[in-house]
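Task 17 of the worksheet. Students: predict the tertiary structure of the chain below and write it out as structure tokens. Keep your answer in the requested format; marks are given for formatting as well as content.
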Amino acid sequence: MTDDAVYPSLKGRPVLVTGGGTGIGAAMVERFCAQGCRVAFLDIAEEPSRALVARLGGNGSAPLFIPCDLRDVAALQAAVAHAAADVGPIRVLVNNAASDDRHRWEDVTPAYWDERIAVNLRHQFFAAQAAAPMMKAAGGGSIVNLGSISWVVGQGGMVAYSAAKAAVQGLTRSLARDLGPFGIRVNCLMPGAVMTERQLRLWITPDDQRRILDQQCLKRLLEPADIARMALFLAADDSAMCSSQTFVVDGGWV
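Model answer:
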């Protein structure tokens, strides 16, 4: 944390992070708090989220945690309003929440497909739709949509997830065009293979780590902090003329 850049424009800025309780999202929440932002985050996982609030509260910068199942659009809209009422009208929205559960293409049903789209894509639009009027009223803002390199590298075993993440780029570029006249920037942040606790517990073996390093130009495994630092830059005024772009943080894989 002591090596992170400091962005004066972020101090006091209201920030909302979806899926902020664990992994990449938790790293973002922690770093936005360290910048002096007024931070709220949404997550379905209550235990780790409350533990994060307790830990950061010890540093005098506790974020607001709002339990929310982002598949429920009405609940999501209410949660965005709740966040704004507490931390102030949202100026930075980080659409981080996702679930990359593996699945065989043969087993995908229409119901499962729709659920995967709801978890990985649909909420990004509706969160942006709820936050954008606040940003418009404030004269601008930043929306960061989390994508994935999975579809670029042709990773199999999770076709619905990869399809949703590919669509994030189209969503980003379209929203950037529509919201740009109001000073609202919309960008896609595309992580590589990040060593979160969940990935290491469920998917990434030591053999996988060696394979990932072989693919990357940079021979260090990605950590959640690497993605969070790019999110800070895209949220800050330092990236004031960056919009409708995809920023890849993958150690040079794609």
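Marker's comment: Residues 110-138 form the longest helix (29 residues). The mean pLDDT is 96.
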